[in-house]
Amino acid sequence: MIRTEHLYKKYESIEAVKDLNLSVEPGEIYGFLGPNGAGKTTTIMMILGIIKPTRGKILIFDKDLYSDYFGIKRKIGVVSETQYLYEDMTAYEYLSFFCDLYGVENKEKKIEELLHRVNLYERKDDLLGHYSRGMQQKIGFVRALLMDPQLLILDEPVSGLDPTGIREIRDLILEENKLGRTVFMSSHILSEVERISHRVGILNKGMLVAEDTMDNIKKKLSSEVEIELEVEDFDVESQKRLEGLPFVNSLTKEDGKFLVRVKADKDYRNELVNFISSSGAHLKEIKRREMSLEEAFLTITEKNISLFSKEEAGE
Amino acid sequence: MNSFVYRLHSIKAIIKREARSSFFGLGLYIAATIACFVASFIFNSYINTVQGNNIMVMASPLNNPLFYAVIVAALYTAISSSTALSREKDKGTLEVLFYGPVDYASIILAKFLEDIISFLIVMLLVTLFFVYAAVTTNLGFSITYLYTVFLAIFLAASMSSFGLWLSALTTKIRTSILLFILIMGGFLGLQFLEEYILTLKPENLSLSMIYIMGVLSNILRIIKWASPFSYLTNGISAVALGSTSLYLENMLGSLAYTVLLLVLTVYTLKWKGVRKP
Fold first, then answer.
1. Does residue A237 sit in the same domain as residue A191?
2. Which of A145, A210, B2, B35 is deepest in the core (most CB within 10 A)?
3. What is the pTM of this model?
């Protein structure tokens, strides 16, 4: 759906984006992460043709943007962090203008339907200058959905919204994805990205340092996984035998619970359950401690590591 | 649909929005009121002349007031154009337009055409006033009125293209207006300087001074082609003189100037970008 090849952007002496190769597959929600100044917005602006890359290639729907500029732009819905609306227009007038721009048929019906979805139909005749930030963000989403886009590009879509607003926008994104729309979303709210993205790409200092599913990124980052066990009648002898299992790295006891560090190459919970049962102990609870996206993100960006192999990085 | 049709579609949608904004705004009506006000001063002086002398001989009495009305309307067009792109950049709305099916050529053409439509609306209101004035004062219409109005469209086009270019250069409304005043003042100053040079008598000047004045005069003549004001004043002179060749020359000159400036505006906007500063 989107593919960049060796995308590079330099502003005078600053390298904003370096040799970026990312790919967004049809139908997925792709979370585009990175600390402030990592080059996320520059990348999005290059994809949209608003900023010209210094070099490199961008393909949208497998085509160069300029081979069918208007045709491609008519299939993309964009929501940015700030909406920059025409504040002297009412919501209806504004959306009607964008329907005209995108050539939307049955615009009255479409506007009505989308405004109902975001609970703003009753406010359709209010000036946009009188809208709250959350309402403006919703109008931005409605604008992006007017033409039934195949691709949604969202740049920090929930930034500055309250929890209710975030939930409403999240639900909207998920609903649209279920309808088959591909979503490319940059956000610094990691919990949101973790919750809805199928795959994430992490950009650090202009370079893509990871691009995979959340599970795979966590696996690559960690050589071991922590499993928490709540066990009764677990004698010392059995504990020693457990520690000696080939996939177990260590066993510790914290607050009455056992913490087993096992290798990350596969899920060893079944093996642990079988071992405890065979030792005659009673297993009350078993829990795998997951690395959060936030932990993964911080590990990658603070330690400045890349999860790509040399072959993947094209070196 | 091909790109050409899509582009036309985008241009049409933007013109519609802009025209709505102008139609419900005050600028257009203020410009028409000022134009009529200026013209009415001249009408008044004619009436005073008739009252004082019992006679006034003039081939096209509406021409002079019309010239001033055209200057006011063209100035309104230039001011409106000079903020057209910078206002949208300043507010961030230009960036949002570029998220969708809008490119540099389509936004500039849309803004330009809307400026011309606004100019025509001002001229329509002015013409209604002139019809009223002609009926009440018995000052007759002549064919030169139509010639002037037709030529005025080309003059407004050159003013608009110049304003749009200034607007593409800047990112803030205030900067655009200041730059517009500065450049327009500069062009007017150059015109006055040229006229002053022409009044100087060579016998009163030293040889080196004559040489400097000669070079300066040639430079000014070239620079003058860059000023939309010169097309306005030359056009008005062409109508006043009744010279068809000057009239056509000015019309074609304005057209070439407009096309050149619009192309320059496209490249300037590409270079400066459409993002909010």
1. no
2. B35
3. 0.83
